[in-house]
Amino acid sequence: MTEKNVQEILLDVIENKLNIPLERERIDGNTLLGDEGLYLDSIRLIELVARIEEQFGVVIPDHELAELANANLERLVAIIVGRAEVR
Topology of 3-86 in CATH? Predict the structure, then answer.
């Protein structure tokens, strides 16, 4: 699975499962997950991580949530791809 595919799946999950409307033409790998980006608060971030673990079969430990709150989309995609390859 390519990074582009993972990013598209993530955006689908955010939009369709978390019910957050997105302006995809304004989103790229540098878009932040938290404030001034996708505006995922801590609860939405937990929901997203649960969906990621379900969708991709990877584990993102709770202690990494704080890092993700300040990460961009590219970083999250890299985490998913890296952990999916290890499986």
Answer: 1.10.1200
